[in-house]
Amino acid sequence: MQMASPHTQIEKKPLVIVICGPTASGKSAVAIGVAKQIHGEIISADSMQIYRSLDIGTAKVTKEEQAEIPHHLIDCCNPDETYSVAQFLRDATRKITEILQRGHVPIICGGTGLYISSLLDRVDFVETNTDISIREAFNQLAENEGLAALYTKLQQVDPDSANRIHPHDQKRIIRALELFTQTGKTQTEHIAVSRLQEPQFDFRVFVLSHDREILYQRINDRVDDMFNHGLIEEAKMFYENYPIATTAGQAIGYKETLKYLNGEATIEEAKAIIKQSTRRYAKRQLTWFRRYQTAEWLNNMTPFRAITQIVTACNYLYLL
Question: Can you give 260-315 as a three-state secondary structure string?
Answer without folding.
Answer: HHCCCCCHHHHHHHHHHHHHHHHHHHHHHHCCCCCCEEEECCCHHHHHHHHHHHHH
